[in-house]
Amino acid sequence: MIGRAGELRELEAAVQRSREHRGTTVFVVGEPGIGKSRLVDQVAGRARDSTAVLRGRCSGTGAPMALRPLAEALLSLDRTGATPQDPALRPYRVALSTLVPQWREHSGPHQPESLIVLAEATLRLLAGIGRDRGCLLVLEDLHDADAESIAVTEYLMDNLTDLPVTLFVTLRPDEGPALDLAYRSRNRTVGQVVELQPLTAQDVAELTATCLGAPVDALPSPVVRRLQRDADGIPLTVEELLNGMITARALRQTAAGEWHLARDLDTTVPATLARSVAARADRLGPQGRAALDTAAVLGRRFSAGLLQLVTGLDDRSLHIHLRTAVDARLILPDGANGDMYVFRHALTADALLAGLLPGQRATIARQAADALEKAQATQAGLPDEWRELAIELRCACGDRHQAGLLLAEAGEQALREGFATKAAALLERSLELLPPDRYKDAWAAAADALFDALTESGAVERAFVCAEAFAQKAVLYLDDTRRARLHARLAWAAAMVGRWEEAAGQVRTARLLLGDDRTLEECAAVDIVDGYVRVRGGRSVSGVDTDRVEALARAAVETAERTGRPVVACQGLQLLALLARSRSFDEANGHLRRILAVANRHGLGLWRARALGRLAGNEGLLKGSTGQLDQVHQVFLRSGALTSAYQIEASLAMLAVLRGEYRRAELALSHCAPAFGRLGHTGDLQYTYVIRATSAAHRGRRREMEKHLADYRDHGGEESEYTPVVLGLCHAVSALLDEDRTAARATLAQAREWGLRHPTAYSLYGRYGLELLLAAVDADTDSDRLAVVEREASARLRWNLQFVQFSRAVLLGRAARHDEAAAAVRTALETSAPFPLARHLGLRLVAEAALADGWGTPGVWLRTAEEHFHDEGNTPVASACRALMRRAGLPATQRRSGHGRVPEALRHLGITAREYEVLGLLARRYGNNEIARRLFISPRTAEKHVASLLAKTGSPERSALCEFAGRSAEEDA
Q1: Which residue among 35, 280, 571, 818 is buried most deeply as judged by most CB within 10 Å?
Q2: What is the number of alpha carbons within 13 Å of residue 63 lying toward its C-beta?
Q3: How far apart are CA 87 and CA 757, in angstroms?
Q4: Which of 417, 445, 452, 415 is CA-nearest to residue 430?
């Protein structure tokens, strides 16, 4: 390519890197006609034999069509007969069917996935296509793209590293989101920006020679000088001006193939591209020129059927004019679809538009919009992009009010289809165009839909900014009931993101607007969100009249169902399930099943997912099993509801940790944790760090636990709703595995106090079981406290229930009811069967109490626990079990098999297994007495081990030995 050798090498190198699984994005930026598409075409053409190439173009026709370039690219794949058959892609077929409907595996209503899930599906498909030979995706004219396409492009851009995918994007240097994205890619070092510069004078001469098929020195010098002067180095302008000279017969070729000037260029050749295009367009005749002008108003890419609808031409006349325009090199058929045409160059359409007077252009736009709206009113199944084009046509002809109504309709439709970002953009534009004094109902409906769209897309902050901006108009043009409904919606949005004070403020405003004589229908939504804020909003539970909140919620749900407001009904049922959970999980599940029924009846996919997930989660907690969660997980995978599937997978991972299935937990986390990071699900990502920390804690890996908890805090986890889980399942269990019961009890008390101050949905952190057992073993509780805990609904959860039953056994044994105590242990062992760590911790603790109080078979229990903890490599608890056995006069075999766990470098120093245990405690700067207590040895023995370590490691003093121990622990970790 002339003048593009460097850019050509850069793009070809990017394609080569994709074959080496080093994906990247290249943004090719340049003004219209400078050769962006031609450059990319040449690279794609060369790559096609060895690399999969997919292409899609954004449409400048009317309002951008959602995800147009991606759909076009994947449809080209579908036309080849290739479909995503990789089993790993099956969960994503539903999401991909948004772009390629033929890939949908089942009929029936389709619940659109979130935009980020669609982007992840596209990323995985491209990676699969390019696995063996690389994949090149070309997206052209991103400056014309819709918000969804730009968002997906950014997601792909950020995640191509280590994938066999190259992304080429062409765009103009116009200010806007596409150009911003290009420069962000360079700042993030995830992409390159290739800015095409105008051709030099020499390049223009060489391009002219190439077009004419002659050497540079054989060209008429006036022609070259004119092109160098007037074309501004733009290849398209060079070609168009040259075509104008030839068409006007000012530049002719002799029989010998030489080019010469037949006329003076100053008088016969158009001085601008617009005149060149207009001259050729005029040769089509008045009717043909009018059709071409109409096509230009419709956009660079246009439908022949739409052009016929607007112009009223019969089939024969239409095709004659289209054929003539193709022969005149003004338009081209666009791909295999015989209905679509495209102007040969973007500037061709611009030049035609420049030749129209403003009144002419407005008249054509109005006629086209009228024809489109009439067709939509009388025909079914018209393309969605025609309605979006009608919006732009109304704007072009100055009919702002009708454009606003069309924008509102399009926005509401986009919201129903799941394109919340696009819906918000359309609805904001509609509210700018619609005067609320003349279109009160339409303006209010658009405002309602806008807040739904912003909340659904996660732009809650933007919703509040818009609410403030609309406040004055709302006061002037909306009645109090509508305004109260708006504030209730904003309150719910704030509550869902934990902005409790803001939510409470919105509730107060809504109450003031409704006044004292409000009806149940008017106050239903307000009552529900008010109750939710009171119960979950960080206030003391004792200060909330939960009976009144529940009564209002029940009345609100009944009213919402009767008046056809299913979302409000689901909100109320969610509140009722939350309130019922403290009394009965059966009752809570009943409310969740009602949500499921309402959601199924009204097609509320989000609420259906929430209900299914909560029901399965409750089942897993109550039974300690993964059966129902596994089934729901598979349902979500088959339906393509990946967000819910990932959340269920995280729940499965936590259950796997509690069940001692650590590899299964890590496998599940390896799927969902990276997805949460890419999807921006901060809370879910925090939970995955907590799960990993819990897994490490339950295996006695304190350093690994602290590392994961540091990641958790780095991602905003400090004082999050997972705090009691961190305290109870991580720190307290870790302390117990270190045989530090005092620290465990202090940590559990801290978790209980946190839970009392901050109501939480998490109940396995010790308040309803483990804390009671430790108190029972230490003779610090009684049967009355046991009865109080047993009455709690959370005490029925199987993880908690095992500790409650062990506690009952200890208290019965202390009361000399030995047979009942032994029976309680048997019951606890049945309950704890799925949870090996909890089961054997329970045996170790109960055995200590049984030895003290003289009941049961503590020797059997201690031996069982010792074998488990020895096999798991947990020396402190295994040593404690052996010490208790020796104290009871029972034989206890001294374990020396830990030698294999001593790192090779330390073994070479002669360090024994016991010395290695001491070294690990020295890394924490423990003194001899603490080391002795933790290893169940005498302080004198601990002192001897320390002295031996000083000699073997060559450490001059204890502080140096502690530093050595710390370095060794880090290397071992």
Answers
A1: 571
A2: 31
A3: 47
A4: 445
Give the per-residue pLDDT at 237. 83
Rounded to an integer, what distance in angstroms lies between the CA atom of residue 91 and that of residue 664? Answer: 20
Q: Please give the distance of CA 60 from its chain centroid, rounded to a whole number.
A: 28
- CA–CA separation, 840 and 861 (whole Å): 8
Residues 117-120: contacts with CB under 8 Å, at least 24 apart: 117/640, 117/642, 117/643, 117/679, 118/67, 118/152, 119/151, 119/152, 119/155, 119/156, 120/92, 120/95, 120/155, 120/642, 120/675, 120/678, 120/679
DSSP labels, 223-291: HHHHHHHHSTT-HHHHHHHHHHHHHTTSEEE-TTS-EEESS-HHHHS-SSHHHHHHHHHHTTHHHHHHH
CB 226 within 8 A of CB 267: no
Interval 844-881: pLDDT, tens: 999 999 999 999 999 999 999 998 998 888 889 999 99
Q: How is residue 503 written in tokens? A: 């939510």
Q: Do 968 and 953 meet the contact criterion of CB atoms below 8 Å apart?
A: no
Alpha carbons 602 and 609: distance in angstroms, whole number: 13
From the list 351, 439, 300, 386, the residue with the least C-alpha distance to 394 is: 386
User: Which stretches does DSSP call E strand in 155-220?
Assistant: 165-171, 191-195
Give residue 159's region: left, alpha or beta (phi > 0; psi -120 to 50).
Answer: alpha
Strand, coil or helix: what is 165? strand
- For residue 847, what is the DSSP state? H
646 pLDDT tier (thresholds 50, 70, 90)? confident
pLDDT digits (tens, 9 = 90+) for 607-637: 787 788 889 888 888 998 888 888 888 877 7
Q: Which of 688, 761, 753 is nearest to 727 (CA)?
A: 753
- Encoding tokens for residue 440? 């009160």
Instruction: Output the CA angle 42-43-47, nearest 5 degrees.
Output: 115
Looking from the CA of 206 toward its CB, the CA atoms found within 13 Å total: 9
Determine contact, residues 727/765, Cβ cutoff 8 Å.
Answer: yes
Which among 478, 420, 477 has a CA at the least distance from the CA of 451? 420
Sign of CA dihedral 90, 92, 98, 100: negative
Q: Give pairs for 626-635: CB < 8 Å, separation 24+.
A: 626/652, 626/655, 626/656, 626/659, 629/655
Q: Which residue bears the tokens 């979006």?
A: 388
d(CA 243, CA 275): 12
Question: End-to-end CA distance of the chain, in Å?
Answer: 56
Phi, psi of 139 (to 5 degrees): -115, 115
Name 533's Cβ contacts closer than 8 Å, sequence gap at least 6: 491, 495, 500, 503, 504, 507
- State pLDDT tens for residues 212-238: 999 999 999 999 998 888 777 889 888
Q: Cα–Cα distances in Å, from 618 out to 28, 584, 609, 612, 794?
A: 52, 11, 14, 10, 11
3-state secondary structure at position 68:
helix
Q: Which residue do the tokens 């606890």 mark?
A: 828
897 pLDDT exceeds 70? Answer: no
Extract the tokens encoding 302.
């246009």
Dihedrals φ, ψ of 873, to 5°?
Answer: 80, 20
Q: Which amino acid is at 692?
A: R
**202: which 2 tokens?**
């020499």
Q: How far apart are CA 380 and CA 631, in angstroms?
A: 40
Residues, the chain: 973
Tokens 């010998």 belong to residue: 256
Identity of residue 769: G
Query: Could you tell me which residues come within 8 angstroms of residue 926 by beta carbon, excluding any fewer than 6 positions away?
Result: 934
Residue spans of alpha helices (H) in 159-189: 177-187
pLDDT in tens, 458-468: 566 677 788 77
Looking at residue 112, its amino acid is: P
> What gap in Å lies between CA 111 and CA 108, rounded to an integer?
10
Tell me the pTM. 0.62
- What residues does 192 pair with on adjacent strands? 26
Which residue carries 């729940």 as its tokens?
651
As a whole number of angstroms, the distance between CA 54 and CA 438 comes to 48
* Look-up of token digits 């360079």: 186
